């Protein structure tokens, strides 16, 4: 980032509290997940629950997670040019947004729905584990 003169535009936060992550996610233009492999991406599910556009690497699990979403774009894991084009398009579409308005607030019912789905999944997994034990 330093070599490209981008340090004023980006910050690497490292590990942050979950509540802080949710605030950042709620105010983001999109969510980028460039993984080469995933079991199941919670980040993708959180972004979907908040109605955020997604830029994800073109791996099987991401394709499954974003299937049917018009606001999700995939890029090859080794295709920096494709990712750059997606990021440039996103920036172009949102140029001036920060100067003229705040990002739209996510619908609180999305949090509730995501939480309910997550709890149901945990109960299913816990129940299956108890039967197997």
Features:
globular, 133 residues, three-stranded parallel β-sheet, 50% helix, mainly alpha
Describe the structure.
The protein is mostly helical. The protein has one domain (18-132). The chain is 50% helix and 8% strand. It is built from 6 helices and 3 strands. The protein has helices at 18-26, 42-49, 60-66, 80-93, 97-100, 108-132, and strands spanning 31-33, 54-57, 72-75. Strands 1-2-3 form a 3-stranded parallel sheet, with helices on both faces. Helix 2 links the parallel strand 1 and strand 2. The longest helix is centred in the C-terminal third of the chain and has 25 residues, at 108-132. The radius of gyration is 17 Å and the shape is globular.
Task: Give the C-alpha Rg.
Answer: 17 Å
Helix count, per DSSP?
6
Q: How far is the first residue's CA from the last residue's CA?
A: 50 Å
Average pLDDT for all residues: 85
Low-pLDDT stretches = none
Q: Fraction of residues in helices?
A: 40-55%
Largest sheet properties = 3 strands, parallel
Strand-and-helix sequence, N→C?
HEHEHEHHH
> How many domains, in number, for the residues?
1
Extended strand count: 3
Strand order of the largest sheet: 1-2-3
Which descriptor suits the 3D outline? Answer: globular
Beta content? 5-15%
Question: Strands, helices and their partners?
Answer:
Elements: H1 18-26, E1 31-33, H2 42-49, E2 54-57, H3 60-66, E3 72-75, H4 80-93, H5 97-100, H6 108-132
Parallel strand pairs: 1-2, 2-3
């Amino acid at each position: 980032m330093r070599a490209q003169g981008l340090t004023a535009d980006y910050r690497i936060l490292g590990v942050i509290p979950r509540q802080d992550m949710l605030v950042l996610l709620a105010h983001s233009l999109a969510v980028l997940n460039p993984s080469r492999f995933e079991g199941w991406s919670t980040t993708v599910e959180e972004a979907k629950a908040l109605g955020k556009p997604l830029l994800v690497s073109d791996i099987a699990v991401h394709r499954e997670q974003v299937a049917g979403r018009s606001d999700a774009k995939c890029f090859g894991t080794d295709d920096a040019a494709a990712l750059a084009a997606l990021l440039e398009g996103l920036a172009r579409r949102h140029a001036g947004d920060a100067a003229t308005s705040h990002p739209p607030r996510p619908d609180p019912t999305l949090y509730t729905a995501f939480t309910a789905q997550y709890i149901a999944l945990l109960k299913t997994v816990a129940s299956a584990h108890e039967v197997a034990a």
